[in-house]
Amino acid sequence: MGGMGEEHELARDFQRLVKAAADSVAGGQSNELIDRVTGHLGVPLAQALVVTRVFEDWEHANIQAGVDAYLAEHGTVTDWFGIAGGQRGHEDLVGMLVAGRNHGLYELGAVDYRTAAVGPEAAADVVQLGLVGTVAPDGARVLIGVRGANPQYGQMQCRLEVLSGSRAAATAARDRIEQLMVEHDVLRGQVLAFGVSEHRGNELLTFLPRPALDEGEVVLPEGVLDAVERHTIGIAEQGARLLAAGQHLKRGLLLHGPPGTGKTHTVRYLMGRLPGSTVVVLTGTAMRFVAKAATLARRLQPSVVVVEDVDLIAEDRSHHSGGGPLLFSLLDAMDGVGGDADVTFLLTTNRASQLEKALADRPGRVDLAVEIPLPDAAGRAALLQLYSRGLNVTADLAPIVEATAGVTASFVKELLRRAALRAITVRPDDPQVTVVDADLTEALAEMKDARGALTRSLLGSSDQERREPG
User: Fold this and answer.
1) What pTM value is reported for the model?
2) pLDDT by residue (tens digit) across 374-415?
3) Could you list the residue ranges that cross the membrane (predicted)?
4) Under CATH, which number does the domain 377-467 receive?
């Protein structure tokens, strides 16, 4: 299936002969589960062959989508059925069939289901443990088995197993299911974020809502947003013509500048401007999954890989000069995506100097670095207008613009909130929240007070602003 499991050597295609059970069974007792399996396949259990593919846990919904599409395409010969009894958490499907036939540990049961996310606010029922009878593309009888991950028992991946009396039939059915998984991929076009689960540190993939910001909500110096859009949206829109002209599509964009200036805000704006692109977000400890993120991005292109605060992974210099091992994993992942892939690597950092040598030593990974600076006077005026939406501001904003030199967009946003809170507190009966001069000046004085130094630092205010008298 286009590499859903092959890249981690989790995918494997093998033929296993289910061992004859008759020698181990006393009295030839009948087992309804085995009868159901062999009755559909038309061969004894000893002659059944199985091909298997192993997938990441977060591919479970895709497995279900592929199997459902296959059943709709080829028809279902028998209904789904499950397996009851024994220690099901420790056995794979074939192991349970063998144990059921040899020792009577497993018998016919109900299908186990679980719920899997297929979007930020959508979920679907998927088979956790079950089998269904159908036919291969050539008409031979096959049995499809799905086994979900079970971290409680150390089973960290999902398994798709196809049984048949013919290896060729089982392989053809499995391959077609994987093709249909690609066609019905529930991850395509979504905003995804890697995280770490509590079970043995294995990765999780969660769905996030796609931000929707208009251009007026992004306040940057003149020309900065245009440059960012040309390098991301512009290449996406003209991708076909660029490829035809022999140009590459993969691009790396680094947004750098002090904390709180709007780097993440700009990233969120770009996510909304690329509604057809898959976005994979990496932050914090999830950055160690950058290789998997790059693989997903290549598979689900057009796509964007967002790595926030990338300077944090460059701090450990104990193994490599110029950056830690994780930084080089990121650069390797960026290099591993082909130039013709419509993939954008979008990096943000508060400290570009931490990355400069590593990026210079490996040219081509990042082909545009854009500074997101502290807002100038015009920018601060625009931010005051932006964050005043919903308020009735009668105050003169010019003195506030002058008094806030060196502050960040985050500082301005918090200033308006504090002014609004003061207005509500002082004039609780006012039907509309009206911000007057006193509300803004007192809120600003409070934020510039010496006791608020840590708050100002957390909001990203510059040293220049912090040196000004309160």
Assistant:
1) 0.82
2) 999 999 999 999 999 999 999 999 999 999 999 999 999 999
3) none
4) 1.10.8.60
